[in-house]
């Protein structure tokens, strides 16, 4: 493979059949099933553990704003996922979306990172489930494991958690039995979980004390670790760091997008389910985090089970057992939701030939990806055995944020891409969209001087000619603007994260640099807004393009900048393993390569004689 063909392979796009009959999987999921799956996969550790820990260690009562900011980031990404779900009703989620719009290499990177995201998510929930049960039984399980099978390895668990392994394998077998059976299980536990959320909010409302949102260091005996008290005890930076952690709580709604080949009506069901699941999840997180910081001082919420602790401190000890039921039901649904998309992404990548093809095997009776389901379940179980929740969660957000960013970029590319290239110049209508004709401006390419060059630049970049439909030239300009915008956003986010740590010491030069960068970004966004967009007829489209996708990109990259250096190192190692698989296997066995080769036309020999008429 020469360098030219290698470059073409990296950007080749997938051609898909979007008809319902094109799927080998069982189309049996309704909008209710998808919504319950999204809620179940989202409401879990975030509500029962993370909300309290963020309040106690990072944000204080401002945890409610941390959840709000994280929800906004998730909703903006959710809009982009919803449009793609309407456009591309196929299994694979962000992987398949990127393959259709951006190209094969970026699609593989996204799919590979999604596999890691879902595996870690499943392992984290399984380990959290085990830890919570262990607390209920006075840590009997962990003490016996430490005694019988101690592990003394840095950055790994103190003991192998065999319960988490058995739990993960059991759910994998249930998933392999069929998608309808597993979603029925998920619906039951999601209903129980939402009932407990309602109970927590109503019961806790009788013990609300707004003084817990206005604690003072000298008056309320605050420990030094509790910050400065008040509603923002750890400042704006603490609230935003809390938002990065709370973002983990919303990871899971994209499981809906992986069901494109198993939904009855994916073009309508997927957008509705994504929006509803995110709305319900945010209301639950906001209500629970507000209640527990109002009934209990935030600095006490540092226990492994902070929500039951808050109710005990408030004098509502009886609520502990109801909350325990909710925890077990919520974590069961969350674990199922985390495990559900893993085999579907692996199946989609294997079907395309980018990963070993035996993972694409469909069981004839259950119509589910059996090999992919059992393999990913085994991988998640082993991760849960040997790693703590903290070690597992470190890698969770980076793959998700990168996927969200690429989906938003893909929406921009699709909206400004030309839908159908004309066969020749004779097919171009005489209209403002064309470069010629009575209504077109006089071409400026032959006019000498500097001013015509400026005028041409203004006409092309800011679409002064009022072109209404994208053509090849406007598509190239839009892609160029999107590239520059993403680069500018990255630099601006890096600058903001650097200056955020010293807000009280900002000087005029820093403010001028931030202002200039922001002004430049706004001018680029305006130029992109002026470009013509494609008029696709689909059931759902992201509103206010390009603003919502660009804001989503800005927030996602900002949250990625907040992650630790060691997280980036681990991510690089995982990515290196994936690139090795792609370069030595996927790029040569790609289904799209075989399709392109089968339609390749033999090159013309210019040494041959001209044909003669007989």
TrEMBL record:
Protein name: Cationic amino acid transporter C-terminal domain-containing protein
Region of interest (Disordered), residue spans: 425-447
Domain Cationic amino acid transporter C-terminal: 540-590
One GO molecular-function entry: L-lysine transmembrane transporter activity
Record's compositionally biased regions (Polar residues): 433-447
Keyword Membrane among UniProt keywords: yes
Gene3D superfamilies: Amino acid/polyamine transporter I
Pfam families, alphabetized: AA_permease_2, AA_permease_C
Principal localisation: membrane
Superkingdom, natural source: Eukaryota
Segments traversing the membrane: 29-50, 62-82, 94-115, 162-179, 191-210, 230-251, 272-301, 321-347, 368-389, 395-414, 476-497, 509-529, 541-559, 565-585
Membrane disposition: Multi-pass membrane protein
Biological process per Gene Ontology, one example term: L-arginine import across plasma membrane
A GO-annotated cellular component: plasma membrane
Species assigned in the record: Tetranychus urticae (Two-spotted spider mite)
Compartments where located: Membrane
């Amino acid at each position: 493979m020469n360098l030219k063909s290698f470059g073409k392979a990296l950007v080749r796009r997938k051609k898909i059949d979007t008809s319902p009959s094109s799927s080998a999987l069982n189309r049996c999921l309704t909008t209710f099933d998808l919504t319950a799956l999204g809620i179940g996969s989202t409401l879990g550790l975030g509500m029962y553990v993370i909300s309290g820990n963020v309040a106690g260690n990072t944000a204080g009562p401002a945890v409610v704003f941390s959840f709000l900011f994280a929800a906004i980031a998730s909703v903006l990404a959710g809009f982009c996922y919803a449009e793609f779900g309407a456009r591309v009703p196929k299994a694979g989620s962000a992987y398949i979306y990127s393959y259709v719009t951006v190209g094969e290499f970026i699609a593989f990177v996204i799919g590979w990172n999604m596999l890691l995201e879902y595996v870690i998510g499943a392992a984290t929930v399984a380990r959290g489930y085990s830890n919570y049960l262990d607390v209920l039984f006075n840590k009997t399980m962990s003490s016996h494991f430490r005694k019988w099978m101690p592990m003394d390895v840095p950055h790994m668990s103190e003991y192998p958690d065999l319960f988490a392994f058995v739990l993960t394998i059991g759910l994998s077998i249930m998933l392999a039995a069929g998608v309808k059976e597993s979603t029925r299980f998920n619906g039951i536990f999601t209903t129980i979980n939402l009932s407990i959320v309602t109970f927590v909010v109503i019961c806790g409302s009788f013990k609300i004390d707004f003084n817990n949102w206005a604690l003072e260091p000298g008056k309320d005996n605050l420990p030094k670790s509790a910050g400065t008290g008040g509603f923002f005890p750890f400042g704006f930076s603490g609230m935003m760091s809390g938002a990065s952690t709370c973002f983990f709580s919303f990871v899971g709604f994209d499981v809906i997008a992986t069901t494109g080949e198993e939904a009855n009506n994916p073009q309508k069901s997927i957008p509705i389910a994504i929006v509803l699941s995110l709305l319900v999840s945010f209301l639950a997180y906001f209500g629970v985090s507000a209640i527990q910081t109002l009934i209990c001082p935030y600095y006490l919420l540092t226990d492994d089970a902070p929500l039951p602790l808050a109710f005990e401190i408030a004098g509502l000890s009886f609520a502990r057992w109801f909350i325990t039921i909710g925890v077990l039901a919520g974590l069961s649904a969350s674990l199922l939701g985390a495990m559900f998309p893993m085999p579907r992404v692996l199946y989609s990548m294997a079907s395309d030939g980018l990963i070993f093809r035996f993972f694409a095997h469909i069981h004839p009776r259950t119509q589910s990806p059996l090999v992919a389901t059992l393999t990913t379940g085994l991988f998640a179980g082993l991760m849960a055995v040997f790693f703590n929740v903290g070690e597992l969660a470190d890698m969770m957000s980076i793959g998700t944020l990168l996927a969200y960013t690429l989906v938003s970029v893909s929406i921009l590319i699709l909206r400004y891409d030309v839908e159908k290239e004309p066969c020749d110049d004779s097919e171009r209508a005489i209209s403002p969209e064309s470069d010629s004709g009575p209504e077109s401006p006089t071409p400026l390419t032959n006019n000498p001087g500097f001013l015509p060059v400026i005028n041409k630049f203004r006409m092309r970049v800011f679409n002064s000619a009022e072109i209404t439909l994208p053509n090849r030239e406007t598509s190239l300009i839009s892609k160029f603007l999107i590239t520059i915008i993403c680069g500018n956003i990255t630099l601006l986010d890096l600058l903001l994260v650097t200056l955020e740590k010293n807000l009280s010491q900002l000087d005029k030069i820093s403010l001028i640099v931030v202002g200039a960068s922001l002004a430049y970004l706004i001018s680029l966004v305006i130029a992109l807004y002026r470009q013509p967009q494609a008029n696709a007829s689909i059931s759902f489209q992201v509103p206010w393009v390009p603003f919502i996708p660009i804001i989503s990109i800005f927030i996602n990259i900002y949250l990625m900048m907040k992650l630790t250096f060691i997280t980036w190192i681990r991510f690089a190692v995982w990515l290196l393993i994936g690139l090795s698989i792609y370069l030595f296997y996927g790029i040569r066995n790609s289904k799209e390569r075989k399709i392109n080769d089968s339609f390749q036309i033999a090159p013309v020999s210019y040494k041959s004689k001209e044909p003669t008429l007989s």
